[in-house]
């Protein structure tokens, strides 16, 4: 047996091998030491008395999934070795073989996956060592069959790769062994090098064409994308090797050659709290948590995809909005469609288990129940008139033939084990029915045999019994042993009697046991045939599942709009962004849940010319960050095809949303809070376009005041003159408000507060104009700082304000003196300058700051030589 173990272990040296022994999976040698520590189970040993004991530990086979899940979460790969034949009399060594290799990226067990999230495996293929080469990347979710590939050859190809990684969040990356040193380290993702030849373009092309049953890959949009094909082919090879089976549910590949979605990087996804709360709060305290009204795992995954990759296709956005609007306007249609999803199992993931040969009879029952709901869904959406629903209704396959097969073949409550029988329905197979009849008749036979033997022997206490160890036997008490007939053959001696067997009983036992063994084998064969039939219809089943997920998403968005009074946004074609009565979806939901104060709506208007950059000032806690975030969230919801939390909204199609919000560091990579801030700002300034939306909160606050002010000033100038993106810029640098007078398209806004008895009240309303104070000390008071600290802070602030006024007065005198000098110096120029001198005399500007002096010089720069 240990030779058998070593032979199998050589096939999977980098995994923890679970080796089936009876009712346990055992681990040996270093695998046992590792697993015992990680799983906190007892480490023992074989051959303890020998000079070289073998460390071992084990887990019950029926509970193995839980232990495997724990190992996977810790980053290990697990290989499972099962018995391929049942034990037989006279055969000491049971045949065993690897049945599956489970890695973090190849998990398909529903108990190990989150229903609303994909579990992607990533393939990465790099060009040669030249710095300007393209790279290919592919993502495969084995649990659903979703398969995508991209070729990145832009100058920012590595940035785009990291965006792909942010969106797909792979759990494992597979790559050619020779490129191991060039593969970047990816957080929460294990690295798996495999043979280089599997990433060869020709080999990969053959593997993909074989997988899809096609003669070309052109139909998948892969022409000219050799590295994308290489990455995808490498994944297919790896998936086949780990699953030890064909992958019929992987029926196609999507090769994107252009961006058809709004780009959201990891910083924006995090800062806007789309999927996770920055504060580590509940999953519901996120945009996804508020918006997700889906009823199936398939719908939840698609909604998540729509959220982190909102569409930029105006036609698709409008089609979704039309569908949602019709459902919102008809409660009857909405409720009828939504009822179809109640209790529906995850068809995509159950199908993957079918294809990979791991589906249990109860999985098939869940799949049958899902199929049963499809005709009702088709009827419901057939009554909806919007273009998208008409298309979905026309293409929905109700899978009635597959449902009928499962209805007549599988019991409603099948046994967990085939050894217990009761998986296949009576009447489905004649041979199985005959064997079951023999098994059922055995009870009656044994009862009649017991009556006959009692009469023949005169022993009233005689019993005919069965157990799994000794089979069928006749039991006689010790007091009646003298009455045992000569044809009784002794089988076992007990304390109180003996057990016998007769020739008739031996023959019947052989007949019964043979029938039961044949029943188990036949049920397994019939079940496998049913599973194969389902696997053969994988493409049809996937198509129906995709329609279910879209319908689930759309009805969920309709319920959201109806329940929370969301409105349909218009699409702006002139680039303007108009929001009236906009609300933050998450904070509004939290306020309603906790019955807190009513959320205060706000308006927003931005266009390409007059109001493109908004500088927003006001106190902390006043609502600046909320206003920034809610504006971005409304745009995201609009491009998902959702209704939005506003009285009215008109949104342009945005190519990217960038955010720089909050303070965080990355000490593991040697980056301070300010360095992280500047890195994020650099990404925005280098990648944003005139079609982007930029959200900046407190840029420059992580360094010295004048350094930070200078950087913030320059960032706004760059966005205004070189980028042209719509920008919401919240700041406590009140000096920046002067840019509204210096730069076209820049406007000032502030959050309103009111003062009452030396206290401030936050009105959380955004209005035009700059704030006159920051109220920092009052916010500190609300936070609970000691009164002595607050009093001292007010004294220091008063002194600084007096110094500032003195400096301002001095600057005013100096600036006015400079103005007189400039006017007088003009007398040295030609007479043509007299008109300019007159103009300068009429200039009546209070030069109270360096910025006012700068404005004066800016007015003059095109007219005179300032040197």
Map the helices and strands.
Blueprint: H1 2-9, E1 16-21, E2 24-28, H2 29-39, E3 44-46, E4 54-60, H3 64-73, E5 78-83, E6 96-102, E7 121-126, E8 135-141, E9 146-152, H4 157-168, E10 172-176, E11 190-194, H5 201-212, H6 226-243, E12 254-256, E13 263-264, H7 266-271, H8 287-291, H9 297-308, H10 314-329, H11 331-339, H12 347-356, H13 361-381, H14 387-395, H15 400-409, H16 430-457, E14 463-467, E15 471-477, E16 489-493, E17 497-501, H17 503-536, H18 538-564, E18 570-571, E19 577-582, H19 585-594, E20 602-606, E21 613-617, H20 624-640, E22 648-651, E23 656-660, H21 673-687, E24 693-697, H22 705-723, E25 726-730, H23 739-742, E26 746-756, E27 759-768, H24 776-783, H25 787-825, H26 834-842, H27 850-860
Parallel strand pairs: 1-5, 7-10, 9-12, 10-11, 13-23, 18-22, 21-25, 21-26, 23-24, 24-25
Antiparallel strand pairs: 1-2, 2-4, 3-4, 5-6, 7-8, 8-9, 14-15, 15-17, 16-17, 19-20, 19-22, 26-27
Helix pairs in contact: 5-6, 9-18, 10-11, 10-18, 11-13, 12-13, 12-18, 13-15, 14-18, 16-17, 24-25
Word description of this protein:
This protein has 867 residues and is an alpha/beta fold. The chain is 45% helix and 17% strand. The chain contains 27 helices and 27 strands. The strands form 5 sheets. The protein has a 7-stranded mixed beta sheet with strand order 13-23-24-25-21-26-27, sandwiched between helices. Helix 5 crosses helix 6 (226-243), helix 16 runs antiparallel to helix 17 (503-536) and helix 24 (776-783) packs antiparallel against helix 25 (787-825). The chain starts with a helix and ends in a 7-residue tail after the last helix. Mean pLDDT is 86; it is low at 665-670, 826-830 and 844-849.
């Amino acid at each position: 047996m240990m030779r058998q173990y070593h032979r199998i272990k050589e096939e999977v040296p980098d995994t923890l091998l679970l080796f089936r022994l009876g009712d346990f999976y055992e681990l040996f040698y270093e695998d046992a030491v590792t697993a015992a520590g990680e799983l906190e189970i007892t480490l023992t040993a074989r051959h303890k008395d020998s000079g070289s004991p073998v460390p071992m530990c084990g887990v019950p086979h029926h509970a193995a999934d839980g232990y495997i899940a724990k190992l996977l979460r810790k980053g290990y790969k697990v290989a499972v070795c099962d018995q391929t034949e049942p034990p037989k009399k006279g055969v000491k060594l049971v045949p065993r073989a690897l049945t599956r290799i489970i890695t973090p990226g190849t998990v398909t067990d529903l108990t190990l996956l989150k229903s609303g999230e994909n579990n992607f495996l990533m393939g990465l293929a790099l060009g040669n060592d030249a710095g300007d080469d393209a790279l290919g990347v592919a993502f495969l979710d084995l649990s659903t069959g979703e398969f995508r590939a991209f070729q990145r050859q832009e100058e920012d190809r590595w940035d785009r790769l990291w965006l792909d990684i942010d969106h797909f969040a792979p759990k494992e990356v597979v790559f050619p062994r020779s490129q191991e040193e060039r593969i970047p380290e990816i957080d929460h993702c294990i690295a798996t090098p495999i043979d280089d030849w599997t990433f060869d373009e020709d080999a990969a092309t053959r593997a993909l064409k074989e997988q899809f049953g096609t003669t070309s890959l052109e139909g998948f949009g892969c022409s000219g994308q050799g590295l994308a094909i290489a990455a995808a082919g490498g994944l297919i090879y790896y998936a086949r090797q780990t699953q030890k089976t064909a992958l019929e549910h992987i029926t196609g590949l999507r090769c994107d050659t252009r961006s058809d979605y709004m780009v959201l990087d990891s910083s924006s996804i995090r800062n806007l709290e789309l999927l996770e709360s920055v504060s580590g709060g509940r999953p519901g305290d996120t945009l996804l948590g508020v918006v997700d009204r889906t009823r199936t795992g398939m719908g939840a995954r698609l909604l998540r995809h729509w959220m982190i990759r909102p569409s930029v296709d105006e036609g698709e956005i409008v089609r979704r909005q039309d569908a949602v609007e019709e459902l919102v306007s008809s409660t009857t249609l909405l409720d009828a469609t939504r009822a179809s999803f109640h209790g529906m199992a995850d068809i995509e993931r159950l199908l993957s288990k079918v294809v990979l040969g791991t589906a249990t009879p109860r999985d098939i029952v869940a799949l049958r129940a899902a199929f049963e709901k499809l005709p009702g869904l088709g009827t419901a959406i057939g009554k909806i008139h919007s273009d998208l629903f008409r298309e979905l209704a026309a293409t929905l396959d109700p899978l009635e033939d597959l449902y009928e097969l499962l209805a007549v073949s599988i019991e409603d409550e099948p046994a967990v084990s085939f050894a217990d029988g009761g998986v296949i329905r009576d009447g489905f197979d004649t041979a199985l029915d005959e064997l079951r009849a023999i098994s059922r008749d055995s009870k009656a036979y044994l009862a009649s045999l017991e009556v006959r033997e009692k009469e023949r022997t005169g022993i009233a206490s005689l019993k005919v019994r069965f157990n799994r160890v000794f089979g069928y036997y006749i039991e006689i008490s010790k007091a009646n042993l003298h009455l045992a007939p000569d044809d009784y053959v002794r089988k076992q001696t007990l304390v109180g009697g003996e057990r016998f067997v007769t020739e008739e009983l031996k023959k019947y036992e052989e007949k019964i046991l043979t029938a039961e063994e044949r029943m188990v084998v036949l049920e397994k064969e019939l079940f496998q045939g049913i599973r194969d039939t389902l696997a053969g219809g994988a493409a049809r089943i996937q198509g129906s599942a995709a329609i279910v997920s879209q319908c689930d998403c759309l009805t969920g968005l309709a319920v959201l709009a109806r329940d929370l009074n969301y409105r349909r946004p218009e699409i702006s074609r002139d680039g303007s962004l108009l929001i009236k009565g906009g609300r933050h979806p998450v904070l509004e939901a939290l306020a309603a849940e906790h019955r807190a104060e009513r959320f205060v709506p706000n308006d927003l208007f931005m266009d390409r010319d007059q109001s493109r950059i908004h500088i927003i000032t006001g106190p902390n806690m006043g609502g600046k960050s909320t206003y920034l975030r809610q504006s971005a969230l409304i745009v995201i919801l609009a491009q998902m095809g959702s209704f939005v939390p506003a009285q009215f909204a008109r949104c342009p199609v945005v190519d990217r949303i960038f955010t720089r919000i909050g303070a965080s560091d990355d000490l593991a990579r040697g980056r301070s809070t300010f360095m992280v801030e500047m890195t994020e700002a650099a990404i925005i300034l280098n990648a944003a376009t005139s079609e982007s939306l930029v959200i900046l909160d407190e840029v420059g606050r992580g360094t010295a005041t004048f350094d930070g002010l200078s950087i913030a000033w320059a960032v706004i100038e760059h966005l205004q003159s070189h980028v042209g993106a719509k920008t919401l810029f919240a700041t406590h640098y009140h000096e920046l408000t002067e840019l509204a007078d210096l730069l076209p398209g820049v406007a000032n806004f502030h959050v309103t507060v009111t003062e009452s008895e030396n206290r401030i009240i936050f009105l959380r309303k955004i209005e035009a104009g700059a704030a006159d104070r920051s109220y920092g000390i009052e916010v500190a008071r609300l936070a609970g700082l000691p009164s002595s600290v607050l009093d001292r802070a007010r004294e220091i602030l008063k002194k600084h304000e007096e110094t500032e006024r003195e400096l301002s007065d001095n600057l005013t005198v100096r600036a006015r003196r400079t103005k007189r000098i400039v006017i007088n110096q003009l007398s040295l120029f030609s007479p043509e300058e007299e008109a300019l001198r007159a103009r300068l005399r009429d200039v009546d500007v209070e030069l109270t700051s360096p910025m006012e002096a700068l404005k004066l010089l800016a007015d003059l720069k095109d007219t005179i030589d300032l040197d």
